[in-house]
Amino acid sequence: MANQSWTHATLALQLLRIDPGLGGICIRARVGPVRDRLMAMVDPDARRLHPAISDEALFGGLDLSATLASGHLVQEQGLLATPGTLILAMAERATTGLAARLAVALDKGKNHTLVALDEGAEPDECLNPKLAERLAFHVDLSDCCLADLTDAVITNKNAIAPRAVTMSGDITAQIARIADNLGIDSMRAPMFAIRTARAHAALNGRGTVIVEDLEIACALTLAHRATRMPEPETGEEPPAPPPDQESQNNTEESFDLPDELLLDAVRALLPDNLLDQLTAQKARAGRGNGTGAAHKGNRRGRPLPSRAGRISDGARIDIIGTLRAAAPWQTIRRNATGRAGLQIRPADIRIKRFEEKSDRLLIFTVDASGSSALTRLAEAKGAVELLLAQAYARRDHVALVAFRGTDAELLLPPTRSLVQTKRRLAGLPGGGGTPLAAGMMTAFEQAIQATRRGLTPTIAILTDGRANIALDGKADRKQAATDAQQIARVLRAHGTDAIVIDTGNRPEPALRNLAQTMDAAYLPLPRADAERLSKSVATALGD
């Protein structure tokens, strides 16, 4: 029996040939015979892209060698100039810029189809979500082996045009309800489901969408976009329609199909670890991207496209870029000056640019109040030590702020020393009130100092959210919440990245609102041990 993911992958390729407007497919699989077997079914004329592809290769540009040889301007076409299938290898490594360019190309509707090969090994290593949203299908072949595969011949001999397939308005409304039940807020999802249902019907030579088309469409396009697990309905079944209505529906392939049956078709494809995956995705959707801030310069770092500039101390000239800028004007300049040879003007000069990342500072802000303070501190200590063990590889610094009683204390200044960390974390008494605002203020002060020293700070707040001490030290629960919200707005205005980790037994709405005010990731982690806490923080930071 064929693996279900394999069956869906081969079916998706057939549907893409029927309707290129479906955007494409993301195939999550490592390099191997399974992926090779599937890629053999892709259009052999497909053009291949790589994550570091240049704008000239995508959109076209000056053909430098031909221009210099012929003496007149020669343009070369880019890969996006003609419609067709594009294959993006190592899609999980695609930069935000490349993802944006490909997304724009797909949005223009010029019959481009993208096959994104996601080779990520961890849940947080995945295709850019903005680009993935433009692709109708997503399949995971990680669990497939050669014994599970069946040969699939992609043929459209019985197919008709998808535009010739009719669909009632009731089906469209039902697809929208299913998407809402799955927590999908993008309009592209139900639109892809509608197009998939029509394409599947067209693939089988049908002029009208039937129940089978609808079930397959929902399973292929909605399951991987779900953001919550739909609960099965326990209520009574709706009454049967009157005889006259039933006979009328049967004449036109009725869609009295309950929403629950379609949800079951989607629910069967939802991964068992959906909630963990969603936590990682929400964390990565925060402001931080897991690295230090990017600084542009002209000396070292990752190369960036060169820009026009002047020769000055420390500037490095991009020879190729300068020649490209000067080449189109050579004939005009030779005629104007009467001189032979290559003529370079100051306006042609292109300066190399580079981008390097600053070191990152992770500021743990730990709630040390209440009866369970010692447990939380032990978790934080273990998490800090686990993160510091990898600090040299990630160039991280770590600081620790503890708040209890009526004030907050900087327990550990920014450091990368594991020995110093263990010495400072040797013992800390707990108990008293919860001055959350004071802890946030102390962390913010450390973040400002870190920014002045060239570090990129991220604040990780570890608390159960029950703030009851105001910033002035008075026991006032209402004022304490107000003070915390005010500091949260300051953090957001300052652009400081933050993570809010809720350690309460139940998610605290006040903490969720606080995270929204800061534009921070919110992670509810009740009873989290040090290892899980460190992994969650690492995932939220994109490590």
- The strand order across the widest sheet is 13-12-11-14-15-16
Q: Please count the beta strands (DSSP E, at least 2 residues each).
A: 16
Class from helix and strand fractions:
alpha/beta
- Rg over alpha carbons: 29 Å
Give the number of helices. 21
Mean pLDDT: 78
CATH architecture annotation of the largest domain: 3-Layer(aba) Sandwich
Say what the CATH topology of the largest domain is. Rossmann fold
Protein architecture, described:
This protein is of the alpha/beta class and 543 residues long. It has four domains: 145 residues, P-loop containing nucleotide triphosphate hydrolases (Rossmann fold, 3-Layer(aba) Sandwich), CATH 3.40.50.300; 96 residues, Magnesium chelatase subunit I, C-Terminal domain (Helicase, Ruva Protein, domain 3, Orthogonal Bundle), CATH 1.10.8.80; 190 residues, von Willebrand factor, type A domain (Rossmann fold), CATH 3.40.50; 63 residues, no CATH class. Helices cover 40% and strands 17% of the residues. The strands form four sheets. It has a six-stranded mixed sheet, sandwiched between helices. Helix 19 runs parallel beside helix 20. The longest helix is centred in the last third of the chain and has 18 residues. It is flat. The two termini are 38 Å apart.
